[in-house]
Amino acid sequence: MTQRSRYVRQAPDVHRAMLAFSQVSSEGLDPVVAELVKIRASQINRCAFCLDMHIADARKAGETDQRIFLLSAWEEVEGVYTDKERAALALTEAVTLLTDGFVPDEVYERAAAHFDERELARLVSAIVAINAWNRFNVTFRTPPAGRS
Questions:
Q1: Per-residue pLDDT tens over the stretch 46-62
Q2: Residue 100's CB: how many other CB atoms inside 10 A?
Q3: What is this structure's pTM?
């Protein structure tokens, strides 16, 4: 596919605001959890640019190829992801899809059992931020940069 527009050049102020939002949204989160969340949302949203970026970032944070490769089937594998990571991934899917128009109580409560209130606020912020990036990049067909 051909890139439709270089939105970064057309709206640099929006890009700067998104960068700032993304940076603060992940502060205080475990870097591996943050990258798993970004990869999973990007898989769901089919954002090649963000997948390429966050797979490379996850590897830099110490993530293994096996865990990256299995992420799209995280619910099907036992003993690969911690309960905390699984709770974060479930919340990521609920926030990303909003299938029924809301995040189910059991998904939220599962995450709240593993993250304190501040971490949970940051986790949801990180999920919202990556979903916004995915939507920019998918809409404008931003090609992967070849990082991973």
A1: 999 999 999 999 999 99
A2: 8
A3: 0.92
